[in-house]
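Researcher: Quick test of sequence recovery. Tokens follow.
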């Protein structure tokens, strides 16, 4: 305990209030020890309210918290209102966390893919890839140059490039029919990631397989986009699908060297190949 963190004791007061306790707690974030004066003997300790720093990076987080906070209406004295609002925001954030983050970064880290691939996917899920729309927002690119490299005429946002573009988005139906999973329609890349991962049922092995494929698609789309933009050369969608098959095969093979994977059957039916059907 430092010199500052101390309390004085008065004998008469202790005799008058025998059940009162005064405790010095551990130093937490502050450089002082909190001193607690308590009237009750039962002490269940404070209930922690969690807030993850990474939430701030998720688009819409600040607006969500602000709107939710303002929407709560409680009557009473200030301290009570504040307490109830904290209680409300805690519940709301719990739900928000489930639907918006779902621990995506750790799911990606768990997959054994090259680091550059997981970084690319991580940036996409956070909308941090240097898409043209993002470069315009940051003042790096003029608005006149924000069009998708495929020539479809739309603005190149992450959502457009990876999901709705008539060229790059056309990969998803091909991938789904290759795997034998239903086509996923989602509004944002992170929703797409979650729905795609669960599209073949909840089995853990199937989910990680689909996540691996999703990462391969994202990687192939992003590198293809860069080739078209910086080298002026382009591959067909079918060629891109071949790359997805090759990369995913290679990554899986590197993860488990003793996995008896037949490249030929992988090419035609990967789920069968992994005994996932
Ligand atoms: Zn496009």
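Model:
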């Amino acid at each position: 305990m430092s010199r500052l963190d101390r309390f004085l004791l008065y004998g008469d007061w202790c005799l008058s209030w025998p059940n009162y306790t005064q405790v010095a707690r551990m130093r937490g974030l502050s450089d002082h020890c909190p001193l607690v004066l308590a009237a009750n003997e039962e002490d269940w300790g404070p209930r922690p309210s969690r807030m993850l720093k990474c939430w701030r990076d998720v688009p819409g987080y600040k607006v969500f918290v602000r709107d939710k906070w303002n929407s709560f209406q409680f009557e009473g004295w200030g301290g009570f209102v504040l307490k109830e609002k904290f209680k409300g925001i805690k519940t709301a954030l719990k739900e928000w966390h489930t639907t918006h983050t779902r621990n995506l970064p750790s799911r990606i880290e768990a997959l054994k893919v090259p680091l550059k691939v997981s970084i690319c996917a991580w940036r996409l899920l956070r909308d941090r890839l240097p898409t043209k729309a993002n470069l315009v927002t940051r003042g790096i690119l003029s608005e006149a140059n924000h069009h998708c490299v495929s020539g479809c005429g739309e603005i190149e946002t992450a959502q457009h490039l990876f999901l709705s573009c008539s060229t790059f988005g056309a990969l998803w139906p091909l991938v789904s029919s290759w795997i034998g999973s239903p086509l996923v329609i989602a509004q944002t890349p992170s929703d797409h990631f979650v729905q795609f991962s669960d599209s073949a049922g909840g089995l853990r092995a199937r989910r990680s397989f689909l996540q691996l494929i999703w990462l391969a698609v994202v990687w192939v789309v992003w590198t293809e986009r860069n080739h078209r933009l910086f080298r002026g050369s382009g591959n067909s969608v079918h060629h891109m699908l071949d790359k997805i098959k090759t990369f995913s095969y290679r990554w899986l093979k590197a993860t488990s060297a003793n996995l008896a994977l037949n490249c030929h059957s992988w090419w035609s039916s990967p789920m069968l190949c992994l005994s996932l059907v």
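The longest helix spans residues 204-231.
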